Amino acid sequence: MPRARQRWSALRDAKITEIYKGDSEIQRLVIARGETGLR
């Protein structure tokens, strides 16, 4: 695999991981708010 393609693939994977982590945090906040009754 050419180096440029490897770098692009690594950046793409990092962005996907960042998005996934953000979704997890949002889910935790929504659940916590539901459990505590806070808005």
From TrEMBL:
Pfam families to which the protein is assigned, alphabetical: Acyl-CoA_dh_1
Signal peptide coordinates: none
GO molecular function, one term: oxidoreductase activity, acting on the CH-CH group of donors
Keywords: Flavoprotein
Membrane-spanning ranges: none
Domain Acyl-CoA dehydrogenase/oxidase C-terminal: 10-34
Source organism, top-level taxon: Bacteria
Keyword Iron among UniProt keywords: no
Name this protein carries in UniProt: Acyl-CoA dehydrogenase
Species of the source: Xanthomonas pisi
